[in-house]
Design brief:
Order of helices and strands: HEEEHHEHEHHEHEHHEHEEH
Strand content: 15-25%
Strand order of the largest sheet: 1-2-4-5-6-7-8-9
Bound molecules: ligand C2E, magnesium ion
Helix content: 40-55%
Distance between the termini: 72 Å
Largest sheet: 8 strands, mixed, barrel
Radius of gyration: 21 Å
Shape: globular
Number of helices: 11
Protein name: Diguanylate cyclase/phosphodiesterase
Length: about 280
């Protein structure tokens, strides 16, 4: 009967919930040791200039290797954010990206790397001192570092965030707004914050070929960026058609599987040297 099958659904559902919460607990515990156990790795994904056909930047994307499985940041970053672990992990990622910059410069590669920034890290006391210290210790040009903050960060706590971003700017680190278009950031916010770049969220690029609304949003973001003198990057570009749309609408910086997936640093270095050679550069 319908009633019987519904109660069966409820049993299955609550069993699923139980499994999900058990996995979360398990992961939260395991995550506490992930850094000491060397389980975290920073991957790099190229950001590409469509006009010059050169990789002009890279995004640092975290991976967690646990018992032969690679766990997605989509799953473990929210877990880290619910505890204080995100602060430790966020600092670790920044320090690791500084290490990577040293490696790149040893290979003669000068390339800005962007680091994702969790809203919770606003409350990490002395974080900016930590950044300064890492930059000095590694002898890095802060021009080669960029924080990606999400739009949500900008809207909540506007005054605190403005101060925080201004202090970041003082260190020389650049700032971009990630997943742009998904929040409700107004033009006047953008104008008064020390932002360099807008990254158009992948969800708007995905259906750009046949979704009128997505096209309108993408066009508006590009226009907004140009009028505020910000650079603009399209995320999640996978097809020629999407790329052509961007070229036609004056967005020539893109990131997506079409240009390269996130990959280990060693592979990234090999690829970029190869690519730049093909472009006649060394
Ligand atoms: P995000 O910052 O928006 O990063 C872009 C995500 O889109 C990455 O997923 C990347 O692999 C994926 N992506 C790039 N191009 C394409 C494409 O053409 N098609 C598709 N389908 N996907 C594409 P990933 O690496 O799984 O990271 C997911 C999210 O996890 C990131 O989104 C970011 O919010 C968060 N994250 C990753 N690393 C860190 C970190 O070190 N710290 C913090 N706080 N968050 C991180
Ligand atoms: Mg990002
Ligand atoms: Mg993004
Ligand atoms: Mg995201």
């Amino acid at each position: 009967s319908a009633k019987k099958s519904m109660s069966k659904d409820i049993v299955v559902y609550s069993e699923k919930l139980k499994q999900a919460s058990q996995r979360r607990l398990f992961l939260e515990n395991a995550l506490k040791n992930a850094i000491e156990q060397n389980q975290l790795e920073v991957f790099l994904q190229p950001i590409f200039d469509i006009e010059s056909k050169e990789v002009i930047k890279a995004e640092a994307l975290l991976r967690w290797h646990l018992n032969g499985e690679t766990i997605s940041p989509v799953e473990f970053i929210p877990i880290a954010e619910r505890s204080d672990l995100i602060n430790t992990i966020g600092r670790w990622v920044f320090a690791t990206v500084c290490d990577i910059q040293v490696r790149l410069s040893e290979q003669g590669v000068k390339l800005p790397i962007t680091v994702n920034f969790s809203p919770k890290q606003i409350y990490d006391l002395h974080l900016i001192n930590f950044f300064r210290h890492q930059i000095e210790e590694h002898h890095i040009d802060p021009d080669l570092l960029e924080l990606e903050v999400t739009e949500g960060v900008l809207i909540n706590n506007y005054n605190k965030v403005k101060l925080f971003l201004e202090e970041i700017k003082d260190t020389g680190i650049h700032i971009s707004v990630d997943d742009f278009g998904t929040g409700y950031c107004s033009l006047s916010y953008l104008k008064h914050l020390p932002i360099d770049t807008l990254k158009i969220d992948r969800s708007f690029i995905e259906d750009i070929d046949d979704n009128e609304d997505d096209r309108a949003i993408v066009n508006a973001i590009i226009a907004m960026a140009h009028s505020l003198n910000l650079s603009v990057i399209a995320e999640g570009v996978e097809t020629q058609a999407q790329q052509q749309y961007l070229i036609d609408h004056k967005c020539h910086i893109a990131q997506g599987f079409m240009y390269g997936r996130p990959m280990p640093v060693t592979d990234f270095i090999a690829n970029i040297q190869n690519n730049n050679q093909h472009q006649g550069k060394h």
